[in-house]
Amino acid sequence: MTEQSATADQELPVIARFEVRRRSYLAPDGKVLRQLPAFAADANVLRSLYRGMVLTRTFDLKAVSLQRTGRLGTYAVSLGQEAVSVGVASAMREEDVIVPSYRDNGALLWRGMKMEEILLFWGGDERGNRSSGPAHDLPYCIPVGSQAPHAAGVAYAFFLRKQPRVAVCLFGDGATSKGDVWEAMNFAGVWKLPVIFVANNNQWAISVPLKLQTASETLAQKAIAAGFVGEQVDGNDVIAVHAAMADAIADARAGKGPRLIEALTYRLSDHTTADDAGRYRPAEEVQARWKEEPIARLRSYLVSQKVWGKSDEEELVADCQQRVEAAVERYLAVGPRAPETMFDYLYAELPRVYASQREELKRNRHGRSDG
Amino acid sequence: MTEQSATADQELPVIARFEVRRRSYLAPDGKVLRQLPAFAADANVLRSLYRGMVLTRTFDLKAVSLQRTGRLGTYAVSLGQEAVSVGVASAMREEDVIVPSYRDNGALLWRGMKMEEILLFWGGDERGNRSSGPAHDLPYCIPVGSQAPHAAGVAYAFFLRKQPRVAVCLFGDGATSKGDVWEAMNFAGVWKLPVIFVANNNQWAISVPLKLQTASETLAQKAIAAGFVGEQVDGNDVIAVHAAMADAIADARAGKGPRLIEALTYRLSDHTTADDAGRYRPAEEVQARWKEEPIARLRSYLVSQKVWGKSDEEELVADCQQRVEAAVERYLAVGPRAPETMFDYLYAELPRVYASQREELKRNRHGRSDG
Amino acid sequence: MAEVTLVEAITLALARAMDEDPNVVVLGEDVGVNGGVFRATAGLQQRFGADRVIDTPLAELLISGLCVGMATQGLKPVGEIQFMGFMYPCIDQLVNHASRIRTRTQGRLSCPMVLRTPYGAGIRAPEHHSESTEAMLAHIPGLRVVTPSSPERAYGLLLGAIRDPDPVVFLEPTRIYRAAKGNVEDDGEALPLDVAFILREGRDVTLISWGAMVKETSAAAEELALEGIDVEVIDLATLKPYDEDAVLSSVAKTGRCVIVHEAARTGGFGAEIAALIAERGLLSLLAPVVRVTGYDTIVPLPRLEQEYMPSVGRIVAAARNACQSG
Amino acid sequence: MAEVTLVEAITLALARAMDEDPNVVVLGEDVGVNGGVFRATAGLQQRFGADRVIDTPLAELLISGLCVGMATQGLKPVGEIQFMGFMYPCIDQLVNHASRIRTRTQGRLSCPMVLRTPYGAGIRAPEHHSESTEAMLAHIPGLRVVTPSSPERAYGLLLGAIRDPDPVVFLEPTRIYRAAKGNVEDDGEALPLDVAFILREGRDVTLISWGAMVKETSAAAEELALEGIDVEVIDLATLKPYDEDAVLSSVAKTGRCVIVHEAARTGGFGAEIAALIAERGLLSLLAPVVRVTGYDTIVPLPRLEQEYMPSVGRIVAAARNACQSG
Ligand SMILES: Cc1ncc(C[n+]2csc(CCOP(=O)(O)OP(=O)(O)O)c2C)c(N)n1
Ligand SMILES: Cc1ncc(C[n+]2csc(CCOP(=O)(O)OP(=O)(O)O)c2C)c(N)n1
Ligand SMILES: [Mg+2]
Ligand SMILES: [Mg+2]
């Protein structure tokens, strides 16, 4: 039978319209683009966001050097993405639950996880995840996107118990290609759950650029498929990230349902310490992006507002250095684990049949015949 | 920190706009709503679509009675959804590939699969899937949504070989909740693959109504998340389904990429012969929907156009009855399979280690000691 | 004390668990108004509400992932997967999360969830509705895999699974959902997990099975008894972790062992049991261990389904052989 | 004839296969410009183009599902899953489709695909990067599961897997990707699937292993030789379907068997081998079969990873025991 051209479509009646909005307040040079949100009038708030970002970067860079010198395992730094981590976590309450990926170091620091705990985990020791952060927070999640259904489940628990709490789920642009994220968003839409999905769009999934990840013009629009609002924010503008999250969380807490926040930023570093981005990404591209990074941006604004100065900066840098160094010392001082402890949290109570395996590990503890 | 109200959103600049259009030509009573597509001027085309739908329904109802009398296994009828099956298949070329679900009987009939083959498969015999339809077509798929990635893979093969062929994937409204469908659509968008996704929205997934399946106003809009166009069609208007598919397939064949077609229809039957919809769905709802069913609708139009009359109808009904009965006889005449054949297509060549198991089946063939 | 079918016993246990603990929620496809495609959740939504008996979208990965998230916050989710053939999308959540959250967080969080699913062939259903791939799950550290073979054990083991502080996959033998009847006291008494049930004591040969095949295995024991062969029948019930002592002490007594399961032979869970015996029960063996199982092929559609399944005849023959040799 | 590492041998085989058959395509995450996170596909995209070496979106289910669809149309897709810990979302496609399309259509369609993935612990990687759950896959009828233990076998077996008309999961031992070096003739010669390789002949005891553990197993054999114990070492290579005859004839000769794998013990593939021996090799056994395996717990993070893995010492001790008893 005859096949006609698609232009016919244009004559058809429209039954649904959608739009995606973008939020940003500070230009890369720190100039104000539009009226700032109310909280930004409080310099203390902005300074604390700034400190959070600087501490995150100081810590991240130290972690990389620890890895380079063989004192830490593979590590995913958040260089250039500190505004996402800090903007998101700072908009949450203690009783809310964060459901992070493996790159949200700044967010977990803000939530109260100790630097030495983060190092311990990436140093290859589960004990790091005991975490001094809120006991109800979920730990780092490594299988990309697989934490999204958890966030929906956590939010469902709040909904069922009628608690005014919100789950916040972070993942990357690559994760938006996974069915897990899709199924979780769709469910959250149906039940109007108090969960905010944050897509940290750093535009790369290891070596895969965004355009090979999806054909959608924005990641925010993916929420349309789940029947709720998606918003894009300038992920290098911590004021925008915090404001967008504060709005979304307030709505979710008020029972207005989920939201997807796309934080558009850029991965200034290699994917992890195990990656060499030089193989797939031109240095020029990275150079250009440095002009947009979030820390200098907020500093320029604070300085322009005369609420931040050279001495503040020097103090902060010194303080961060000192805190990080102290944490590293505590990390390096952590003693080894007894091998048999690999059975200690397998079940609430170790089934009798595995006792002998635990015993064997205990026996071998000091005498493994091949050293 | 302070949380603000979401109304702030409305002041943000819009960076992307989307719309979903709807296609329908015939009102439930067969009256013309808008200018018909060119192909509809040819009465032969419309009559063949009509015949396809009537044959499908005649066959489906016979299959149900076979199941009720213990001569067929569980069967999923397409009662009320014949326009989707026929409208879709009739817009395809022989060299295209259909990737069906378990409910697309009418489409497979149109593609050339024999009625006795369909019965043989649902009668519990794999041999039915040898199918007299195009050898490259995929067979019925039972795990909901899991066929969507196959369709993308088939389309990729066409793309790689630069063949002007299209893959057409059918699934239900429930399937749109599965990550499989989502991942497949997203990939098809990135590579602009020649694949059309058809969501047969019969508004129920067994007992789960659409509103518990997703919060999106339409299923068509889910394509927005994958970066391509989604269109809703009146799934009870075979002219609309065929036209939408013809356009979509023509575009895909011309390299313009994938499309999602939501065919909005209604499941007039139980989910399958194993289901009792009376447990979860009011009879009144179903009654009301009967007014919209596709066969009477097209017939009214054909009659109003004087291209179809009482005698045509009587002939057609008799012909369909006769063809179905003949097919049923051929089905019932199919001999049993030797037990050991369960190994015959496990691998291209049966690995030596399994030969003894095949032998055992052969030995036991007639003498299973417990009868 | 009423006579109920196995699936009715499941419903009783679910209702009891939901009644005694507000943290228990049931979720899955069609579990609400419809009461489940096998009626296992019949009446629960009317009684406990649509918020605690959740009709989910059609997405198995989601169901298992939701359970994990809910469980970390102290809910006790009981997810239903409509058929085991649709459970594969849950494996990622089971292996990478449910079974590890306690270890990953060194006890800070735990995952008290149950994932129920009907399993096994023999109901003349379409493709994918006859799966019996319990061995894949029983290989996962941190998980429990439990399957009942009677209404009494269905009730007691499901209560035990729901109350257990760790994740449990609960496999329900579809074939005997209604065929198996028994008197179940709805007294809230759970049965212990991790222990096998000796259904019949005997001296000559040990028959080990679980789930629906316990029916054929017990029938075989009766038939063998007529021949004067004294059979011990063990229902393993919990496959992960399983009751190694029960297996070893029985074989130490009988010296002969036949393992029966309907899953494909190669890499089936019967292999684990035979391996245990080869390692720690070898010296008491008087005859080779035998596995009577489904064949190493795709479970055929209904027309050949019966030929695929272990029959009483095959079990009897294997046991008879074992008793003759050695 | 050049000395190459195991991962370089993989690259050679992929290049050869793509060169000789235009239907072969490679797809996965980061396989293109980046050449794979382990460089297994290095240079392939430059040589064969971005259409045949496809950087997919981040979605493992998709990768396996695309392979199935492509394969039904005569392409020979070789999908890469970045680590075995991320392969679980593929199991649904492997069990419900790849392994069954030939049976489902009674030969009308087939599924000649290969799904490659690095597997195993020992590289001090983060959680989920040390999985060794081959037993789950080796239980699936209709599938092949193959794993090499040297560059030569990596080259020959991968070529064999790609040319095979049925689906193959190809497990690449991460730990010896670079550690294992060998002289590989890039002559397009495939090695046969479904057969085990006798790496060392011996009379006293049979050591059976596969993948990376062949290294420790062979080292153990050396050590045992010094004690005058004559060891036969078998690399199973293909786990599904596996070479039962090779196992049985070796054990018939030695009467003693130690099976070594790094996966958790319970329900690991070693169980299947021990079960085979208990069923059909029992009479030749002079000592209990022994499994030297990873422990029944979550593979620990790097700090305890080494304690988790079977060591040369544990293998030697087990073999020594076997030789003393009986
Ligand atoms: C399911 C899964 N597949 C593959 C990987 C390996 N991997 C780790 S991070 C990564 C890229 C993730 O990209 P994105 O989601 O954009 O997050 P980003 O790393 O950029 O923050 C990949 C492929 C993984 N961890 N999980
Ligand atoms: C993955 C999977 N889960 C569950 C089922 C059981 N099941 C068969 S059909 C069906 C509902 C499907 O609804 P929909 O996608 O709307 O298609 P429809 O049956 O309405 O045509 C379910 C849950 C299945 N076949 N596959
Ligand atoms: Mg990214
Ligand atoms: Mg439907």
What is the topological layout?
The complex is a heterotetramer, with 2 copies of chain A (about 375 residues) and 2 copies of chain C (about 325 residues).
Chain A (H helix, E strand, L loop, with lengths): L13 E10 L19 H26 L13 H8 L7 E3 L5 H7 L3 H8 L25 H13 L6 E6 L6 H13 L3 E7 L2 E2 L2 E2 H4 L16 E5 L3 H16 L5 E6 L18 H8 L3 H11 L5 H24 L21 H10 L7
Parallel strand pairs in A: 1-7, 2-3, 3-4, 4-8, 7-8
Antiparallel strand pairs in A: 5-6
Chain C lengths: L1 E4 H15 L3 E5 L15 H5 L4 E3 L4 H13 L3 E5 L10 H8 L2 H4 L9 E6 L14 H4 L6 E3 L4 H13 L4 E6 L7 E4 L12 E4 L4 E5 L3 H14 L4 E5 L2 E3 L3 H11 L2 E8 L4 H12 L9 E5 L7 H7 L3 H13 L2
Parallel strand pairs in C: 2-3, 2-4, 4-5, 5-7, 6-7, 10-11, 10-13, 13-14
Antiparallel strand pairs in C: 1-8, 6-12, 9-11
Helix pairs in contact in C: 1-7, 3-4, 8-12, 9-10
The complex binds thiamine diphosphate (2 copies) and magnesium ion (MG) (2 copies).
**Could you say which structural class the secondary elements and strand pairing of chain C correspond to?**
alpha/beta
End-to-end Cα distance of chain C, whole Å, is 46 Å
The arrangement of helices and strands of chain A along the chain is: EHHEHHHEHEEEHEHEHHHH
Task: Tell me the overall shape of chain C.
Answer: globular
Ends apart, CA distance between termini of chain A: 76 Å
| Number of distinct beta strands of chain A | 8
Shape of chain A: globular
Largest sheet of chain C: 7 strands, mixed
Order of helices and strands of chain C: EHEHEHEHHEHEHEEEEHEEHEHEHH
Question: DSSP strand (E) fraction of chain C?
Answer: 15-25%
Alpha-carbon Rg of chain C, integer: 19 Å
The chain-level mean pLDDT of chain A equals 95
Assembly status: heterotetramer
Unreliable stretches of chain A (pLDDT < 50, length at least 5) are 1-7
Question: In total, how many beta strands of chain C?
Answer: 14
Low-confidence stretches of chain C are none
Average pLDDT metric of chain C: 97
The percent range for helix content of chain C is: 25-40%
Strand order of the largest sheet of chain A: 1-7-8-4-3-2
